[in-house]
Amino acid sequence: MEKGHDSCSMAASELYTKFARVWIPDAEEVWKSAELTKNYKHGDSTLHLTLEDGMDIEHKLDDKTKNLPHLRNPDILVGENDLTALSYLHEPAVLHNLKVRFTDSKLIYTYCGIVLVAINPYENLPIYGSDIINAYSGQNMGDMDPHIFAVAEEAYKQMARDERNQSIIVSGESGAGKTVSAKYAMRYFATVSGAATEANVEEKVLASNPIMEAIGNAKTTRNDNSSRFGKYIEIGFDKRYRIIGANMRTYLLEKSRVVFQADEERNYHIFYQLCASSHLPEFKNLKLGSADDFHCTNQGQNPIIDGVDDAKEMCTTRHAFSLLGINELNQRGLFQVLAAILHLGNVEIKDRDSDSSIIPPNNRHLTVFCELMGVTYQDMSHWLCHKKLKTAQETYIKPIPRLQASNARDALAKHIYAKVFNWIVDHVNKSLRATVKQHSFIGVLDIYGFETFEINSFEQFCINYANEKLQQQFNMHVFKLEQEEYLKEQIPWTLIDFYDNQPCINLIEAKMGVLDLLDEECKMPKGSDDSWAQKLYNTHLKTCSLFEKPRMSNKAFIIQHFADKVQYQCDGFLEKNKDTVNEEQINVLKASKLKLDLLVELFQDEEKATSPTGTAAGGRTRLSVKPKEIRPGASSKEHKKTVGCQFRNSLAMLMETLNATTPHYVRCIKPNDLKFPFTFDPKRAVQQLRACGVLETIRISAAGFPSRWTYQEFFSRYRVLMKQKDVLSDRRLTCRNVLEKLVQDQDKYQFGKTKIFFRAGQVAYLEKLRADKLRKACVRIQKTIRCWLVRKKYLRKKHAAITIQRYTRGHQARCLVKYMRQTLAAITIQKFQRMCVQRKLYLQKQAAALVMQTILRAYMARQKYQGLLRNHKAVFIQKHVRGWLARQRYKRSLRAIVYLQCCIRRMKAKKELKKLKIEARSVEHFKKLNVGMENKIMQLQRKLDEQAKDNRVTSERLNCLETSHAVESEKLKVEVSKLKGIEEEAKNNANRVTSLLEELEKLRKELTTTQKEKKTIEDWATKYRDEMEKMVAELKEQNGLLKTEKDDLNRMIKEQSQQMTEKMARALAEETQQLESDLNEERSRYQNLLTEHLRLEERYDDLKEEITLSVSVPKPGHRRTDSTHSSNGSECTYNSEFAESEESSRHGEDVTRGMDTSLTLKLQKRVTELEQEKSSLRNELENKEEQFQRARVRDDEEHRKSRGAELEYESLKRQELDSENKKLKHDLTAMRQSLLGNAGAGAGAPGSPPYKVLMDQLNSSCEELEVRKEEVLILRSQLVSQKEAMQHKETMTEPVHYVEDVHKMKDSGAITQAYLGLKETNRSPRFLRKPLEANELLNRLRSPTADFHRLNEDGELWLVYEGLKETNRLLEGQMQQQRRSYDNEVEVLRGELQSVKEENNRQQQLLAQNLQLPPEARIEASLQHEITRLTNENLEMLLTEDPTAYRSAKVNILRRMVDLMEQLEKQDKTIRKLKKQLKVFSKKIGEMGAGQGETISPGQMVEETVRPVNIPRREKDFQGMLEYKKEDELKLVKNLILELKPRGVAVNLIPGLPAYILFMCLRHADYVNDDQKVRTLLTSTINSIKKILKKRGDDFETVSFWLSNTCRFLHCLKQYSGDESFMKHNTPKQNDHCLSNFDLAEYRQVLSDLAIQIYQQLIKCMENILQPMIVSGMLEHETIQGVSGVKPTGLRKRTSSIADEGTYTLESILRQLSAFHSTMCQHGTDPELIKQVVKQQFYIIGAVTLNNLLLRKDMCSWSKGMQIRYNVSQLEEWLRDKSLMLCGAKETLEPLIQAAQLLQVKKKTDEDAEAICSMCNSLSTSQIVKVLNLYTPVNEFEERVSVTFIRTIQTRLRDRCETPQLLMDTKIIYPVTFPFNPSSLALETIQIPGSLNLAFLTRV
User: pLDDT of 358-370, one tens digit each?
Assistant: First the structure.
């Protein structure tokens, strides 16, 4: 064991400092942790410590050794997978690490170097399912968390790699879990390897476990299922490493348990199973009852095991017997013998006297025993109480006392049970024996561990002897591995001292050893246990230090074993070693009258019997170990060998076998004696650790260099201890330089080839340096942050103080301002009061002055008015006279000028006409092109005439307005004269004022009276109004309440309707989702059955081939042909493989008779059942798909209705463009053919057909251009006409009658209503320009002045006068307004006239410019100008009417202009292209004519010109069919399927070409109505595809290629089936190509099944490629460098089993996915199918990654979570790049994403637990708890997850309904669908390349 000073890497004073933690011994906990409170100095005798509970103690050091206590490992190293990864390797560290893993993390497996330590949890754990087996299969031992499956996988891989047999040695105490571990190891081998034959050997191997447990296991005080024998099972494998058989060897069965059990223990399980099943009819004759009724089963007083049903276990045992070939007859015989043993144990023997005994007559149990065994009652009762003594001369029969008789009875029972046990083992071995030659094997040794009890007897001695031998072998193996590792790394090898237990083994088995002396004493006639003990004392007491004698006993001895001292009691050693039984009793059993072969085999001669303790392999063939040869004649004495001798021989044979294999060790530990789950007892654990050799392994490792790092791991971990200048490109040199600086003593480490070796404690020292460095960095960061926080706090305080000061000063300032304001207010009040007094005086004076000024100014104004009026009349008369004279002069001058202009223009026009006629004759060929221009000029001229006419009409209207104005002026003059007369009359009536005043006084009195009455009425009206208002308020309130109730009811109704709508939508969505899930489940079941069907078919073919190869001998000249059809093979559509071998099965009829008929019948029956189930599932699937399709059609119809117009427009546009394109292509083809077909010299002549064709093409192009241009103009004109029509519609109604009706309105309400109606009904811009408000109208009609009462009291005259004046002003205002409107209209007309003139000039200029341009440019320029002009006119009109509509119209017009311009540009490009081609062809024609004109005769030229006319007609007749002969069918399939290379086809040809060719051939067969041809073609195609996939099924390109072609073939069958649902997207030509004679719906189903099979094969192929990359790329590779740290690892490093084959990265996965995607796209795979493939692959990536994460503790850290999330983001980015985000692949990664988030979130408080529960909804409870248990800090600053937090998570997730499965199922394949994807490719356009060698196909 390691000492304190040996573990130090430096001076003790540097390690044992304050706060250092150590381990000190403790009586109860074995070791207790403590912390130093004071530095240790050399020479100190005590250490000052503080325990974990806070108690301070002083630990005294040993005075002699001065050994310091063991140092404790850093917390970061606690809980490691491998104990050798601990820096300090000693007993307390090992014990603490196991305890933490077992109790805190719930991990029962731990590595200790090459040993797997397994602690019994006493609880069923979900870590042994098939998903866990699949996860560990193929993994290296160091890659995954420790597990029994990892050890089994390591053994299996080393057997395959090293071609060496393996063995797994499982040992431990009773109750430690040895049997379970061995059973799980065998289950692993049976699962991963499979069986080589059809006999299901792996099931038989597993079936042997319940049998051996029933007959060899029993309940003890330590274990409910304790193995009471040792066994070694060899599992045999063939050359392909598949299980072919097994063999079992047993050791030292505890026979004494048959007749004796201690308290709380049971007999073997089989007895209790028999008693529990005694009520069954087949067990009635055994006459059994309850287990309490038999002495052999009731001694322990506890016959029931909790949770175990013995009756159910009996059924399992019987089923296992049947599976292993033990028939019902032998089973009944076995149960009969076992029942006889129970009855024999109940036989009561009584004393006859002191020396004899007797069995009472008619003993019921003995009678039953004799009936069951078939012997006589007298013989058996006699020999149970007597024995025969033989001497040299005579034979004596001697009675025996009752005690000896009871012992003899028990010995017989034990002997019978041993024979039964041996017989069962032999028959199990026979059933498991291999039928073929064994290539290698893996042995599983399940043997008892070291045992020591209060009383130890012969059984414990043998057990401990066996453990001594195993420990020696273990020590040698560990030592050998250490030496190999050192030599491999070229480290200097120093001899390590380790414990060698060879002296103890010699003490036991050497000559004159314990066993030798025991056998010698057994041969003595009077040998006894006492005499043997004395011989032991005399022989070994003084010579061997390992042998001792107890002080207080002379019948015991002590042996110092490797684990502990054990005291053995000598009583019973001789008897158990002899194992004697009365020979006469055996003879009675041999004479049994029962006709059972079982009894004959059980009690045959001893020399032929095979004892379980002395078996010599029974003739078994072994490869590695040869049994010793048996001397002739030695068999007669073989049965006389003692038990010890037999055990020693079998143990030697076992060790020889183990030494010839590579061992793997599993040490099982029992954590406590009370069987409490996950309860760790340190005392019991450390006792077993010392006994099983784990601590010895630790000691050997610690003696050398136990810690080993690769250079890269060391650099990654301790990079923080290096400076930048220390980092070199050479990692090895960098590590060397750093270590020399950090560790001065070079003996503490060694540099190997690939690793650095450290002595114990060095890693802890480096971790301490690393932690100190990181701690300093943290302190520095904390210092800076705290400084920042304090400064921030100071700044906040400073800001607060300044704010307080600011507000205080503000308050003071506000008080000052308030005082100043009050002072200012007082002053202001005084000022305004004084001002008011002065202002009153001023106003009085001002009023008096104003009265005087008013009278004076009125008089002066009247005088001035009269003068102005006279002047105005004179000026008016002068103006009209002078105007008339000027107009007369202007008219005379105008007539003269116009006459002169007409003469001059006529003369110029004649000259111009002559010139135009001359030009017209010279440019006659351009008239066709300019027809449209003349029309336009005429239109423009016509438009000018119309505008001139409008101008004349406007002039006439102007004259009319002038005339009306003059008339109106005359009327006004008359009215003015009338007003003057009225004024004179008013002066005359002034004298009547006095009388009028008197009348006015009377009226005032009446007015007073009237006012009083009015006041009374007003009071009453006010009262009435108040009452009415109150009533109205109440009514309004009630109305408001009613409205509120109404709103509430409406809201409730709305909410209820909304809830109902949502509920219905939710129910519909749930129903739809349920239907989809049911559909997926049915589809998945159907596809799984399809896969099973395919597997059975392949199995059937393999069996048939094996039988054919093994029995029939082929003829030399015979070769199997490609024909796979019989005469009626086409009818076998579903089992197409059967038709493939019908011919060979006919020839091999005699061979198949020798088959296993039962297997064939089972297979046929299974195939029939699968077919029936398949058909039913297919019907269900069709129904589901029909429902789904119906719902889908409804949705599509609704969507189609909404987009109908748009789609119709787009389709029309596409059809138009397609027709134009086809026309141009046709014209170009005709042109090319006409050119290429003419080789004559005159081919390019003007009169030749090519020349005509070219001219026709040019003319048609020009015409097409003209048509397009006219279409543009027509579109523009339609746009203008529509706009004018809208304007005309708006201006149809004139507003005159509205104006007339206004005068008829009397009140303002009527006028307002009429005005609003006018505003609503008429939206013309003319009304909008002059809005007429009702208030203005009223003011104009009745506007009295308010101050008339002040001027004149009676008011009548003045009122009339003012009314007249107001009327006059109103009339004048209307006249001025009309004048302004007239002036405005005149200005507008003048502007329009000017614009018309400008437009005329611009048109003339444009015409002149166009005449100078070439014809093409002339047309284009005129079009552009016309479009621009019309657009501007429309926009100007719209702008004046509606600005909003103007903007939208402008945008639409611009868009339409762009579209038209694009079309025009396309047409121009086409014309230019045609012109270029025309020039090229003309040049070629000219060259050809020049080169061949001299050599070809005219007659030949004429013939050559006619030849190319009929060339294109053959293309029109092609119907898209391919004809072939029946004898060419095999050639077609061979060239198109079997010998086709996908890579060349995918690159060079169109996707899906083979499918198109096959369908075209099928179309012709349908066209000729040949059903036989259709059937044979389809059957040959399907069989050939299956054959090529079977041959090259592991090639991804091949599988992808044929998946794409199969789907395309299936789509073609649907598209051309004639079904309307599949013909929606067909063209009329494609509809003509539909199949007409046959309905191939059944074959569509067969092809769909074939596509499903190919899809599943594609998925498996992709998985095989991706599987090795996933774990390395997603978990192990550091995509983000430097994030995750490397922790110290033990001996179980990565790639411990195989050499490094190159690591994969995430880029490797992405590249592979891209390669998959590009290949499938290249093959033309349907996009929907690609999405399903990608989704499946992403599920595999996520599931495999998550499963490995759940099984690897080293991957569960914060940094690894970041790496995983980054990797997932890269995968999502890949999906985005490929436009696959909506395929559902991202959702499959959700569990992995949540697991990564779980690694990174905070895990302390209840809020954190709640957040985790809500976040991880895609993870199961077991997965969440597993991740939390596995969470491992990489740095000391991280913290582990507490047990309390994990329990909180479990409590919160208790109500989740989910499966308890831990790992995700990586074998799940989502059900695949093949959505219909019609092809737009026309069959008649497909060309068959010559590379396919299909020249025998004829196009039809």
Answer: 888 888 898 999 9
